[in-house]
């Protein structure tokens, strides 16, 4: 089943010079295509909408500070079961719990600065793609 997902290479990935490495891993996966890509500093309004599910959690304010402080790379990736596949490629939220071979497992440091966001379900992908790429049909 071909799907579309929203991926964000977070400010730590850009600052550490890891975007080529991460994009390379996505490109090497057979059958997946990057159909949009942009370097973008995310504003707080956009991030509040994106992270609405986390309002009130203790990590919410520092997460918004981190995500708005420097440029990210936002991408649309299309392909076979790409939503589940990108979550697998990223690894679990906490880099210490993430297995080597996953992006977070190989390069992650602390839980907030975990390099990559990928939509976690079809519903999230649909919602998030509209937030970051409203012109997409
Ligand atoms: P994401 O939404 O960024 O793809 O990551 P995720 O689903 O694996 O994690 P989620 O639970 O949705 O959390 C969103 C982001 O918030 C930061 N976070 N910090 N305890 C903490 O300090 C903490 N917990 C989460 C991470 O940047 C996480 O990716
Ligand atoms: Mg999430």
UniProtKB/TrEMBL annotation:
<dbReference type="InterPro" id="IPR036850">
    <property type="entry name" value="NDK-like_dom_sf"/>
</dbReference>
<dbReference type="InterPro" id="IPR023005">
    <property type="entry name" value="Nucleoside_diP_kinase_AS"/>
</dbReference>
<comment type="subunit">
    <text>Homotetramer.</text>
</comment>
<dbReference type="InterPro" id="IPR001564">
    <property type="entry name" value="Nucleoside_diP_kinase"/>
</dbReference>
<keyword id="KW-0460">Magnesium</keyword>
<keyword id="KW-0067">ATP-binding</keyword>
<dbReference type="InterPro" id="IPR034907">
    <property type="entry name" value="NDK-like_dom"/>
</dbReference>
<feature type="binding site">
    <location>
        <position position="93"/>
    </location>
    <ligand>
        <name>ATP</name>
    </ligand>
</feature>
<keyword id="KW-0963">Cytoplasm</keyword>
<feature type="binding site">
    <location>
        <position position="114"/>
    </location>
    <ligand>
        <name>ATP</name>
    </ligand>
</feature>
<feature type="domain" description="Nucleoside diphosphate kinase-like">
    <location>
        <begin position="2"/>
        <end position="137"/>
    </location>
</feature>
<keyword id="KW-0547">Nucleotide-binding</keyword>
<feature type="binding site">
    <location>
        <position position="87"/>
    </location>
    <ligand>
        <name>ATP</name>
    </ligand>
</feature>
<comment type="function">
    <text>Major role in the synthesis of nucleoside triphosphates other than ATP. The ATP gamma phosphate is transferred to the NDP beta phosphate via a ping-pong mechanism, using a phosphorylated active-site intermediate.</text>
</comment>
<feature type="binding site">
    <location>
        <position position="104"/>
    </location>
    <ligand>
        <name>ATP</name>
    </ligand>
</feature>
<feature type="active site" description="Pros-phosphohistidine intermediate">
    <location>
        <position position="117"/>
    </location>
</feature>
<comment type="similarity">
    <text>Belongs to the NDK family.</text>
</comment>
<keyword id="KW-0597">Phosphoprotein</keyword>
<keyword id="KW-0418">Kinase</keyword>
<dbReference type="Pfam" id="PF00334">
    <property type="entry name" value="NDK"/>
</dbReference>
<feature type="binding site">
    <location>
        <position position="10"/>
    </location>
    <ligand>
        <name>ATP</name>
    </ligand>
</feature>
<keyword id="KW-0808">Transferase</keyword>
<dbReference type="GO" id="GO:0004550">
    <property type="term" value="F:nucleoside diphosphate kinase activity"/>
</dbReference>
<protein>
    <recommendedName>
        <fullName>Nucleoside diphosphate kinase</fullName>
        <ecNumber>2.7.4.6</ecNumber>
    </recommendedName>
</protein>
<feature type="binding site">
    <location>
        <position position="59"/>
    </location>
    <ligand>
        <name>ATP</name>
    </ligand>
</feature>
<keyword id="KW-0479">Metal-binding</keyword>
<keyword id="KW-0546">Nucleotide metabolism</keyword>
């Amino acid at each position: 089943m071909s799907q579309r997902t929203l991926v964000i290479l977070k400010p730590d990935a850009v600052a550490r010079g890891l975007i080529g490495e991460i994009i390379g891993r996505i490109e090497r996966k057979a059958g997946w295509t990057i159909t949009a890509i942009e370097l973008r500093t995310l504003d707080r309004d956009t991030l509040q909408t994106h992270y609405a599910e986390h309002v009130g959690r203790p990590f919410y304010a520092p997460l918004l500070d981190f995500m708005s402080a420097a440029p990210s790379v936002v991408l649309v990736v299309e392909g076979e079961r790409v939503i589940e596949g990108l979550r697998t490629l990223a690894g679990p939220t906490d880099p210490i719990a993430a297995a080597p071979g996953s992006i977070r497992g190989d390069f992650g440091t602390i839980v907030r600065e975990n390099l990559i966001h990928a939509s976690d379900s079809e519903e999230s992908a649909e919602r998030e793609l509209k937030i970051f790429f409203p012109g997409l049909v």
